[in-house]
Amino acid sequence: RDGFLPQGVVSFAAGETTTRISVPIRGDTADESNERYEVVLSNPVSIDGPSAISTAVASGSIVNDDLRSFQITASTPEAQEGSPTENSLQFTVTRAGNIHTLGASLDWQVSGGTLSAFDFANGALPGGQLVFLPGQATRTFSVVLGEDSVPEPDERIGLSFSNALIGGQPASAQYEGTLPVVRDNDVEYQVIGETS
Questions:
Q1: Bridge pairing between strands 69-74 and 172-175
Q2: How far apart are CA 62 and CA 23, in angstroms?
Q3: Where are the beta strands (DSSP E) in the chain?
Q4: Of 50, 114, 140, 171, which has the highest C-beta tally within 10 A?
Q5: Residue 185 near residue 81 (C-beta atoms within 8 A)
Q6: Is pTM, for the whole model, over 0.85?
């Protein structure tokens, strides 16, 4: 904890056969692999005479909690264009790492895919920023669809993510799974003329 390898003396009271050693760990904000440590026992002393150590080495692991990443998944697999109740797509963002003491933020933007700005409410590609307070592991955002009268194939949304920060440090953002589909609700009519 203070920059030095811990050490000390383990004492047993009369009648005790087991005791516990506590190894203090100093936290950091470095993204690193899990680390292994060993505790070595030596110099056994007993008032009853000579003693020996049957197991002199024990090992443990320090689990890294500083992985900085966001995982994005779709809460709704598809939406219906023009539907009064099913015209939005919901997404869930989950962050990994130290969520207890660090805040976080992530910008999202609809981009790519086969949808254009005219397929959304207000005629613009939606976007925004999610802010995580310390202790918040998940946030959600929604994309509201617009309505048009153009018959077209079903389309798939595209998303991009930027400015991913956890505790002020850069983080990764990864979409998991299949992007949702927007079902078209327009019917194409074909007029067939008659000839005499």
A1: parallel
A2: 11
A3: 35-40, 57-62, 69-74, 78-80, 88-96, 104-110, 127-132, 138-144, 155-156, 159-166, 169-170, 172-175, 181-183
A4: 171
A5: yes
A6: no
